[in-house]
Amino acid sequence: MADPIRQDTLFVALARPQMFAGVTYTFFVINLIVAVELFLIFRSPWVLAAAVVFHGVGMIVCLNEPRFFDLWLTRVRNCPRVRNHSYWRCNSYRP
Length: 95
Description:
- Helices cover 60% and strands 4% of the residues.
- By secondary structure, it is mainly alpha-helical.
- It has a two-stranded antiparallel sheet with strand order 1-2.
């Protein structure tokens, strides 16, 4: 007789990044700093409305993959455009 499959409980709080208001803490801080700086420059409440909309987009993205922004930043940092990108239509990892 076959042994049953062993199951271990995964604590999601240990596997997910730190979240605040539905987005990762890094995204929240960057969104907050950019919104405050733009508000101080333009002195318009539309900047705050745009920050709320941008936060909503971040919440939707973080529902599927919580580390989306961290993965994107890593990709941008480690995969620069190569000189012949227009010909090959691809990037290369930095050696």
